[in-house]
Design brief:
Helices cover about 10% and strands about 30% of the residues. It has two helices and five strands, in the order βββαββα. Strand 2 and strand 3 form a beta hairpin. It is globular, with a radius of gyration of 12 Å.
Length: about 80
């Protein structure tokens, strides 16, 4: 199955809640993933909060043009018990 992010919501700090097309949902903490030219600016929490789901890419994107693949996010998903 090809993964797609269907919904995303900012929760707190650098944690997002995501729902995928296979029905999986949970939290992803990206604090330790924000490095490099595209992602380091996201350490500014106001920019990080601009996260949204791009309907064409079917993954999360930010106002600065950064995006992460659904597979990368899925691997870091913490599903609540």
């Amino acid at each position: 199955m090809i993964l797609h992010v269907k919904k995303a919501k900012y929760l707190y700090d650098y944690v997002l809640w995501l729902r995928f097309n296979d029905g999986s949902e949970g939290e992803v903490d990206l604090k330790n993933e924000l490095y490099g030219t595209m992602f380091k600016p996201l350490l500014d929490i106001q920019l990080f909060k601009t996260v949204k789901v791009d309907p064409e890419l079917e993954t999360i994107v930010w106002a600065n043009g950064a995006d992460l693949s659904p597979e990368y996010l899925y691997d870091r998903l913490k599903i609540p018990v």
